[in-house]
Amino acid sequence: MADALPVRQYVVEALRSEILALRFAPGEKLVERRLCEMTGASRTALREGLRQLEAEGLIEIIPNRGPIVPKLTPKNAQDIYQLRGVLEADLSRQAAQSATGRDVIALRAIAEKVTSAMRSGDRKALLAAKSDFYDWLLRLSDNDETTVVMRKLLGRTAIIWPSTVLDDMPANVHGIQTFTDLVDAIAAHDPDRAAHAARVQVLSAGEFALAHMQRSAEM
């Protein structure tokens, strides 16, 4: 176990990586004994970590059954992306209004990592870069309640992405363009354009994800 990390945080990061790498199937029960063996953590530390993952939306803890990886339906995905569209439009509007020159420089660096990962189809790099982007966006909002809600929605989205979207990343040229439009609008300090670009970017990503989910269901 990594000495540099508190036990609970190590558990969270280890299990988060396993879930996003599809080591567990949607709907699969997560057996505590197996997870303790995998992470080297005690049951107490494991349960603390599982509660954090539940707050992030990456697992569900079902009474009398225990933790499972959620099995999301196309309707779940549609609802998630619709709510994200509303929230991210507001967050992007705020960012366009409040971003400093230093913030914009940081945003451009993050955006380069996002688009590079999308072009190359590097799943791990994309997840890391998008996490950096949302950390940046939420930091500028300075709204703890919005941050809690967004973190859970992003966790749910991360479950959708590996199983539906990321395999087709290089083909999603439109996704790269909509993200670039969003970054350009924020950097230009244009709140209305940033809000519109955020809605377009999120809803476009949702349409792409739903189409892929439906194709996968038909195979």
TrEMBL record:
Record domain HTH gntR-type: where: 5-72
Record's keyword annotation contains Transferase: no
Alphabetized CDD domains for the sequence: WHTH_GntR
Keyword list, A-Z: DNA-binding, Transcription, Transcription regulation
Record PROSITE patterns: HTH_GNTR (PS50949)
GO molecular function: DNA binding; DNA-binding transcription factor activity
Gene3D superfamilies hit by this protein: GntR ligand-binding domain-like (1.20.120.530), Winged helix-like DNA-binding domain superfamily/Winged helix DNA-binding domain (1.10.10.10)
Statement: the UniProt record of this protein carries the keyword Transcription: yes
SUPFAM superfamilies, sorted: GntR ligand-binding domain-like, Winged helix' DNA-binding domain
Name of the molecule in the record: Transcriptional regulator, GntR family
